[in-house]
Amino acid sequence: MVRVPVPAISHPPKSLRRNHKRHLKERIIELLLFLAASFSVFITFAIIYLLISESLVFFEHVSLWDFLTDTQWTPLFDDAHYGILPLVSGTAVSSLVALAIALPFGTIIAIYLSEFAPFAVREIAKPFLELLGGIPTVVYGYFALLFVTPMLQTIFPNLPGFSLLSAGLVMGIMIIPYVSSMTEDAMRSVPMHLREGSYAIGATRFQTAAKVVMPASLSGIAAAYILGISRAVGETMVVAIAAGMQPNLVWNPMEPAATITTYIVQVSLGDLPHGSVGYQTIFAAGLTLLLLTLIFNILGHLLRKRFREVY
Amino acid sequence: MNNTNNINEIRTIIARHKRWDLLALVAGIIALMIAVLTFIALFGNMVIDGMPRLTWEFFTSFPSRKPEIAGILSAWVGTTLVMLVTAVAAVPLGVAAGVYLEEYAPKNFITEIIEINVTNLAGVPSIIYGLLALGLFVYQLGLGQSILAAGLTLALLILPIVIVATREAIRSIPVTIREGAYALGATKWQTVADHVLPYSAAGILTGIIIGLARAIGETAPIITIGALTFIAFLPPSPVQDQFPFLSFEWLMEPFTVMPIQMFNWISRPQEAFQHNAAAAGLVLVLMTLLMNGLAIYLRYHLRKKIKW
């Protein structure tokens, strides 16, 4: 029997031993990366802290009840009223007009691209829609004021130069790409065998889309709609340019009216002294806006949980 | 007899379903066409109004009270400098956060908070970032209405975009690459720095370009920090001919950017200014289209080339 010589066990050479310097460097890098990631949490806290602290000062001057029920918003006048309702109504009307365009069109485009369109069309249409979504909002504002409004005035001669209708329409067009691309992603993630099952029992493509694919991707579609809503509510430049800056408690889209975002822009364009009540109003308006979008985001989260289908 | 009736009935039903199918197809094509037509109207309208103003002088002149000699010199210089600050701030921070969440983060409560938070930040309206910047950068940190304040504001705004893009790019790298590196004795950071990051660089770059394209067109947060709209001078040049050759004075200077200049011209009553707005809008749209186009090209190109 041949004995294989066993090498004597010795400590590994120094270069292979646990290197403390190297270990320390790894830990420091990990810490730095962690700090970078936590920075986003810091941003959220900074936003919440700032909006709430400035709004608290505002609510020392104005009671919450007046803020929520007064029907006039005239903080910059001598006879100052601080009712958020006119701004909320402007936001609601312009958003509703926008959604009336964006949700149906976005959904139809998504159904077409996901269930009907040949590969080549989809490969061209998707990047095109993405480009459309990348156009700056100020450009859409220009388009609303100087193209859509004059065009609408030939149909409705009484339409004023600024209106919620034309701002809302253009906003709707602007949001179509977001809604359609998210809806399409949701529909395409439905597994192919569900469609094949539907085709096998003789359903058409439209029936398959409406009765199989859309119910199965409802959570994703709901998320897309919610994203569309919160974009419409938070949109600033289109309404600031095309809907006018006058706070107006109206429910008629043919009228001009300011939204929450428009008001913030209007105040920022003038120079209000830091610390004045006028300065704090924009933070109270901002807090209202943030709460509105937060409600929609939470709603979206719940809808997604409620309708989630797992394959 | 009954049988033929039945068959006819079935044929009618099939025909009806096929009609609906055709209707849906036509509706889809029409909806897509409307989107295309809107884009053509938007672009065509701006070309008609703005093209005559797009001369060399338009790029080399300051804004002016006289519309026919006004230009966008201070605006495009301002946009370039603000974007520089935005990129320098957002890229390292966003990529580092993406790397942490994808490669380092343990599955625990804190990680979940950070992830939910990034998703939520992406949904916050841009004007809210403007309010944050107004309170934090302009007043509490005392940066004033400077290029630095504007650049940092936009950096916060695009941070979620960069983080999400980084995560997606890193996630697409197979785990075998990492295992190979570990097997050769590389540390975690060596694996990330020498393998994961270089291989996902193009994907990360795509996200950065999309983020910057978004930042270039953002108007609302810049208005909110109170940026002046009439700037007829340039900030001091970052590059000097004397030692130390670099100067950072420009960071604290007042500025204007392309979308602000355009907004300013839109809100004036004279038609000649609106032609200037169209010309500025055209430049702005071309800039964002080029950047987004580059990003889309990169992504498609990558998808075809890389096979793990």
From TrEMBL, chain A:
It holds the Pfam family BPD_transp_1. GO terms for cellular component: plasma membrane. One of its GO terms (biological process) is phosphate ion transport. It is found in: Cell inner membrane; Cell membrane. SUPFAM superfamilies: MetI-like. InterPro entries: MetI-like, MetI-like_sf, Phosphate_PstC. PANTHER family: PHOSPHATE TRANSPORT SYSTEM PERMEASE (PTHR42727:SF1), PHOSPHATE TRANSPORT SYSTEM PERMEASE PROTEIN (PTHR42727). Keywords: Cell inner membrane, Cell membrane, Membrane, Phosphate transport, Transmembrane, Transmembrane helix, Transport. Residues 88-300 form the ABC transmembrane type-1 domain. It comes from the Bacteria. Part of the binding-protein-dependent transport system for phosphate; probably responsible for the translocation of the substrate across the membrane. One of its GO terms (molecular function) is phosphate transmembrane transporter activity. The chain crosses the membrane at residues 28-52, 92-116, 128-149, 161-179, 221-245, 277-299. Belongs to the binding-protein-dependent transport system permease family. CysTW subfamily. CDD domains: TM_PBP2 (cd06261). This is Phosphate transport system permease protein.
From TrEMBL, chain B:
The chain crosses the membrane at residues 20-48, 68-101, 121-141, 147-165, 219-236, 278-298. GO terms for molecular function: phosphate transmembrane transporter activity. Keywords: Cell membrane, Membrane, Transmembrane, Transmembrane helix, Transport. GO terms for cellular component: plasma membrane. It is found in: Cell inner membrane; Cell membrane. Gene3D superfamilies: MetI-like. Pfam families: BPD_transp_1. It comes from the Bacteria. Belongs to the binding-protein-dependent transport system permease family. CysTW subfamily. This is Phosphate transport system permease protein PstA.
